[in-house]
Amino acid sequence: MDGIDDIDKQLLRLLQQDAKLTTKELASQLGLTLSPVYERIKRLEGLGFIKQYVAVLDKGLLGQPITTFCQVSMRYHDKAFIDKFEEEVQKLEEVQECYHMAGQVDFLLKIHVGSLNDYHDFVKYKLSQIENIGVLNSTFVLKEIKHNLGYYIP
Amino acid sequence: MDGIDDIDKQLLRLLQQDAKLTTKELASQLGLTLSPVYERIKRLEGLGFIKQYVAVLDKGLLGQPITTFCQVSMRYHDKAFIDKFEEEVQKLEEVQECYHMAGQVDFLLKIHVGSLNDYHDFVKYKLSQIENIGVLNSTFVLKEIKHNLGYYIP
DNA sequence: ATCCATGCCGAAAATTTTTCTACAAAGTGT
DNA sequence: ACACTTTGTAGAAAAATTTTCGGCATGGAT
């Protein structure tokens, strides 16, 4: 947490919940005037604490109500195969997240699709087309219990 | 995708990548003038397609470089135990996401901490304190291969 | 004690958001 | 075919916000 103070932290907490808060509103919540708040935001952007601003959409309304986690293990662990897998995964738009994991399984993928049928097609015609996949194990999300968009800031 | 057209979809694609784009910039990219773009955004917000706007922070700079996925199974599956677990998980600030899953394991948790030590403390003093947990299986993220912030919009 | 750096304030300028009126195209009912 | 309504867009004006800038305090260093 190099070089940021409690005011900066509070600013980050507020902005990661609502990026549309105006400098004016932020200033009043922080007990400052416009200028210092404005400068702090620019500084936090410059330092990389704030990476970007995004609109959060409703995946249900977008027609992708199904979320699954898919565990993938490679048959062989040559660097070339690993690189190839990572490269191919980037291209699959259904894959929202992909992590290289420690432990039994090599990769964990988070996938969004519109229906079970779409998931079937995704696995059969896209994912399993990637070379050298050994194990492929999918589990479905029944319910989202918690999904924080921001991080905990100590 | 009830009641939104291709222009709306393109608008959503742009905004979920960069919510700071001005109406002017959006208008020029969409080949429209300010007013229709402005009204479309308000409409998409009203319909719930756009849920909120957030700043995306850098978890490494915030001192939480470690991500783990933790699979949890309950010993007994009475509704009261399930409810209690879901309730307690909400309170744990290290837990960024929690899903009730189909399959062998009951819950999947995504957790952010600052160090392996922090993770140890989290499991020992917080997570495992919740009643009725049977299996608890943690796997660490070695590398983030892909992390789309937005959804794929067909 | 003076100088310099840092952070904040307040006001002005630039830009954007928001509102409002009007026009054109598409669909509906007579 | 005609008038009517609805929908979506354009353009301009008003309101609000962002951005810039000069100045004032506080604190540390020389």
Automatic annotation (TrEMBL), chains A, B:
Record keywords: DNA-binding, Transcription, Transcription regulation
SUPFAM superfamilies with a match to the protein in the record: Dimeric alpha+beta barrel (SSF54909), Winged helix' DNA-binding domain (SSF46785)
Taxonomic superkingdom: Bacteria
One GO process term, biological-process aspect: regulation of DNA-templated transcription
Keyword Phosphoprotein belongs to the record: no
MF term (GO), any: sequence-specific DNA binding
Domain HTH asnC-type positions: 4-65
One GO CC annotation: cytosol
UniProt protein name: Lrp/AsnC family transcriptional regulator
Species this chain originates from: Spirosoma validum
Source species taxonomy: Bacteria, Pseudomonadati, Bacteroidota, Cytophagia, Cytophagales
